[in-house]
Design brief:
The protein is of the alpha+beta class. Helix content is about 15%, strand content about 35%. The protein is built from six helices and 18 strands. Strand 16 and strand 17 form a beta hairpin. The longest helix is centred in the C-terminal third of the chain and has 12 residues. It is elongated, with a radius of gyration of 23 Å.
């Protein structure tokens, strides 16, 4: 070893044909910064774009060594690229390391990939994505509902921005932001996310790239007034949530402890929370609310946690979500008579 090892750089490849620098050494960069990949090169003879394209075509880690002539001799430069592969097999990112050939790159920073599959109402995840929050490999589940996935978050301030992309993906659409996530060992982590719309058949929705920046950016803590409001509602037996009525599924709980009678975990799709015959009822109530400040109360049947395989009558107060996103989302309070 002749010195300290350079940092890893994260290159997102969420859209075929596009590559952008989104982090270096755990410091996130915006998708809109448009930094030149060639700026990463230690010498004009090393063309970074071409190397990354070769890395995308490779399976697994890709390495190359280049000899550069210097006044006092030659210097061997090593380039290493590790793919971050998503659950559908697409490469969501490349982790890039460039340094002297006699240096050990060390492990790349923790990153993983997931896909929000709009038509199925699930978030598909790799084993690496599960392990980021401390899930053991044996407990990995390849698909989770949005509500299950975001239940791990203890602070997420831009729900609207992400859901606007995930529920209505359009060409060129993108989002980026941070979550505070509770790890299985009890510590709070900070994950930074980059997401782009995907319109490919069978994968319509959003491709997502996560990376752990806990060591470079302090995780946010839950806001006290939000926690107080959540606990106040739960104390009265009211459980708020976000629904995606046009698609008929539960998107996210807005309470710490979801209703104990609803089976919302370990279901194959977010649609399975509500009885199939009641999903059109929810969608119809939502359509009547569009453009108004009112609300509607209906009774639906929810998947029973108390008696698996059966349905439990649940009262639901539906209110419109503010702004344009109200076409796709609704705020609901769920309770039992």
């Amino acid at each position: 070893m002749t010195g300290s090892s350079p940092d890893w750089t994260l290159i997102e490849t969420l859209v075929p044909g596009e590559m952008n620098i989104v982090a270096k050494g755990g410091n996130p960069r915006s998708l809109t910064e448009s930094l030149s990949l060639q700026r990463l090169s230690p010498d004009p003879k090393i063309v970074i774009d071409a190397f990354l394209k070769r890395a995308l075509d490779a399976s697994g880690r890709h390495e190359e060594v280049t000899e550069l002539r210097r006044r006092n001799g030659t210097m061997a430069i090593k380039l290493v690229a590790d793919p971050v592969v998503g659950p559908t097999g697409a490469t969501h990112a490349l982790q890039l390391w460039i340094g002297a050939a006699d240096l050990d790159p060390g492990p790349p920073r923790t990153a993983s990939a997931v896909s929000w599959l709009l038509e199925k109402g699930v978030i598909a995840q790799t084993q690496e994505a599960s392990m980021m929050s401390g899930v053991e490999p044996a407990a990995h589940v390849p698909e989770r509902t949005p509500a299950e996935y975001y239940a791990k978050s203890i602070r997420f301030d831009d729900t609207a921005g992400l859901f606007a992309l995930c529920l209505a993906p359009a060409e060129g659409g993108h989002w980026e932001g941070s979550f505070s996530v509770l790890h299985a060992d009890g510590r709070i982590m900070r994950w930074h996310c980059h997401a782009r719309a995907c319109l490919e058949p069978g994968e319509v929705g959003v491709r997502v790239l996560w990376h752990d920046v806990t060591d470079t950016i302090e995780p946010d803590k839950p806001i006290l007034d939000v926690l107080a409001r959540q606990r106040g509602l739960e104390g009265h037996g009211i459980y708020p949530a976000l629904l995606a009525p046009p698609h008929g599924y539960l998107a996210m709980w807005l309470c710490e402890q979801p209703p104990p009678w609803v089976q919302w975990r370990d279901v194959s799709s977010g649609e399975e929370v509500f009885h199939p015959e009641d999903r059109p009822l929810i969608a119809a109530a939502h359509r009547r609310l569009l453009g108004s400040d009112g609300h509607e109360e209906i009774t639906v049947r929810t998947n029973s946690r108390e008696q698996p395989g059966t349905w439990t009558p649940t009262r639901m107060r539906i209110s419109g979500y503010p702004g344009d996103l109200g076409r796709y989302l609704a705020v609901v309070d769920m309770y039992r008579d």
